[in-house]
Amino acid sequence: MANLTIRNLDDELKSLLRQQAARHACSMEQEARDILRRAVQAQPAGTGFAQRIQQRFAGLKAEDLPIPKRRAARLSPAPKD
Fold it and tell me: Which of 28, 40, 43, 76 is the most exposed place for a label (fewest CB within 10 A)?
């Protein structure tokens, strides 16, 4: 098993962690492990940007989206001699 040291944890956060651990009847160390495990498992490993975008817009139908009106193309400036 690996060890992890967390430095510069503010006193209020430590107190909240201690209180939450007490509510769950476990040690602060166990509570921190549980929190980290849930946080890491919430995002599936290997989910890339494209997959996350696809998941976010999966329920939308392209035919239901509004089509914006096109504007006339801008002409490039005439070359100067």
Answer: 76
Range of the domain at 30: 11-35
In contact, 31 and 24? CB cutoff 8 Å: yes
**Predicted TM-score (pTM) of this structure:** 0.52
Structure-token pair, residue 25: 């009847």
Number of domains in the chain: 1
**CA-to-CA separations, 66 to 24, 27, 53, 69, in angstroms, rounded:** 50, 54, 19, 9
Residue 67, both tokens:
């089509």
Q: How far apart are the first and last CA of the chain?
A: 76
41-61 mean pLDDT: 78
Query: C-alpha 65: how far from its chain's center?
Result: 26
Dihedral pair phi/psi, residue 64, rounded to 5°: -90, -10
28 inside domain: yes
Residue 69 lies in a domain: no
